[in-house]
Design goal:
The protein is built from 13 helices and 28 strands. It is globular. It is an enzyme of class 2 (transferase).
């Protein structure tokens, strides 16, 4: 049974394959799609694949209207965590007593979805029939009469994105790639004028022994960003920077012991993360690494502004830039939103994406989001006065290799709103730099040069991606899906210090959700990013009993 028999005339078509194998079936399917004049406008392929790091991996394709997701997870777990509507499923080699997949597959199956298989046990056939599959002609068809969840209507493909930093530029590019027209609104005269305007941002994964939610989310974002940047021309080519690797020094002996425990689990391939003992790390770095270090060979640095430029160039004619408009507000008029500035209305559309960092809370509908602006001062140093680094070096602070004669060191974490460079912050950066390179004279006497930016940070340090919650209308809501939202308003906020890697995946997630496409993350991770999580947390904190001491 071939999927191409059933996709004619469809707007989109999603195929699930329980075994990616060598990729030949996927390649053949994409080629069949290319050659079919009656093909669906968008083809989505989701396949289970071994040999990858755990989790979901969205792999950009030659055509923007073809999506490939590779999932490294057991079948049952993958189906439970998959957010998609499946039109065609292939099952391979399901020998044994497992029937748990049947209910999860039925939950995802579209009406009249087709099922192909090379072998099923009698118990598995019975389990699938109990869920509404009818076996016929060597395959099966999903014929359940139970009502299917109604997908939200895809809005008119015109969006206003507020903020032209990494978050907003990525949102514009991912929407334009899907055929949307985007009006990008920025209060400054140019993109990347605030936190995204630093000379260098570093990109690297996050590790933990228990592979917790922040680790899994960061890994997914990092791996997607590496692939995504290649579609824009690549780091060190179209994008200014270098995939030179990042060496993260252990803070102390205790941190080194914890790192060894992670390395002993053999979860990560060498190209992704390699633990180096002190002698190895010191030799590779050319500087002391007394407690050892992690080496992230695929990591590096990039100038965020050049990433923004590459994303905006990729938007083409579908992008309208409205820069230098100052502060804005949004107003609901009928079924659309109007964005107003000091000089009047700027744009109107049914969909608005807030991507202006902590400044987004100045918009009334987002005022109750618990976002903070953390000041970060970066110090710019004459690279000739510092050791020549083969990698980005980091611990509590970071130091980049030289670019155009300048190395970047930083950055501070301050709670004030002072936008000016100050000597005290530079001294803090220099002290951390000196500890990092084991040289008490590094940077001494350097002139006060650098840049101040403000990171947008949520209490749990995770981004806010999804429909903007209406705190005032939440009432007694207990579940994320029941939290009321401001219709047509979405957020891409809270990227903290990882905007480079968060921006592509978060924009892809939001664009996929708007288009009712398969989502590029496990359902649990999607929920962890939902801005409505703070509505539920606020309610729980109110219900907690107060503690008191007896008289």
């Amino acid at each position: 049974m071939n999927p191409s028999r059933f996709w004619q005339g469809r707007e989109r078509y999603t195929v699930f394959d329980s075994a990616y194998g060598d990729g030949s079936r996927t390649a053949a399917l994409i080629e069949a799609w290319r050659q079919d004049p009656d093909r669906p406008a968008r083809l989505h392929i989701v396949a289970l694949a071994e040999g990858l790091l755990p989790g979901f991996h969205r792999i950009p394709q030659q055509e923007s209207c073809v999506t490939l997701d590779l999932l490294n997870a057991p079948l049952d777990a993958a189906l439970v965590q998959l957010a998609a509507r499946i039109d065609f499923a292939r099952l391979h080699g399901l020998r044994g007593p497992n029937t748990g997949f049947a209910r999860a597959l039925a939950r995802l199956a579209a009406s009249d979805a087709r099922l192909a298989f090379d072998w099923l046990e009698q118990e598995q056939v019975a389990a699938l029939m109990a869920q509404g599959f009818v076996f016929e002609g060597g395959g099966a068809r999903f014929a359940s009469r139970k009502p299917r969840p109604v997908l939200p209507e895809v809005p008119a493909r015109h969006a206003i994105v507020i903020g032209a930093g990494l978050a907003g530029c990525a949102a514009a590019e991912r929407l334009c790639a899907r055929g949307w027209d985007v009006t990008l609104v920025e209060r400054h005269a140019a993109p990347a004028s605030e936190a995204s305007g630093n000379l260098a941002g570093i990109f690297m994964p996050l590790l933990s022994k228990d592979d917790n939610i922040p680790t899994r989310l960061t890994r997914a974002a990092y791996l997607y960003a590496l692939r995504y940047w290649e579609t824009l021309g690549g780091i060190g080519k179209r994008i200014e920077g270098a995939a030179c690797g990042v060496m993260q020094l252990a803070r102390d002996a205790q941190h080194a012991a914890a790192s060894r425990a992670i390395a002993a689990g053999k979860r990560y391939p060498r190209a992704f993360a390699e633990w180096l003992e002190a002698e190895q790390a010191s030799t590779a770095l050319g500087l002391p690494a007394p407690d050892g270090a992690w080496l992230f060979r695929q990591g590096g640095w990039a100038r965020p502004g050049s990433v923004c430029e590459a994303m905006l160039d990729a938007c083409g004619a579908r992008l309208t830039r409205r820069f230098g408009v100052g502060s804005v507000r949004i107003e609901r008029v009928g079924e659309e939103w109007e964005v107003h500035g000091d000089a009047g209305m700027i744009a109107r559309a049914a969909t608005v994406v807030l991507a202006a960092g902590a400044a987004s809370t100045r918009i009334a509908q987002a005022a109750r989001l618990p976002l903070s602006a953390l000041r970060g001062q970066v110090t710019h140093l004459d690279a000739s006065t510092l050791p020549q680094l083969p990698y980005v070096l980091c611990r509590e602070a970071y130091l980049t290799p030289a670019a155009n004669g300048v190395a970047c060191a930083g950055a501070t974490y301050d709670l004030d709103a002072d936008p000016r460079l100050r000597a005290a912050s530079q001294q803090e950066n220099l002290e951390r730099l000196q500890a990092l390179v084991s040289d008490p004279d590094a940077g001494l006497g350097a002139p006060l040069r650098g840049r101040v930016g403000f990171r947008c940070v949520a209490p749990d340090r995770l981004p806010l991606v999804g429909g903007l919650p209406d705190f005032d209308a939440a009432g007694s809501t207990e579940r994320l899906r029941d939290v009321p939202r401001h219709p047509g308003v979405f957020s891409l906020l809270g990227y903290a210090s990882r905007g480079l890697i968060w921006a592509p995946l978060c924009a892809e997630l939001l664009a996929a959700r708007l288009e009712n496409e398969p989502l590029p993350l496990e359902a649990a991770l999607v929920d962890a990013l939902d801005p409505a999580r703070f509505v539920l947390r606020a309610r729980r904190s109110v219900r907690m009993p107060a503690t008191f001491a007896p008289d």
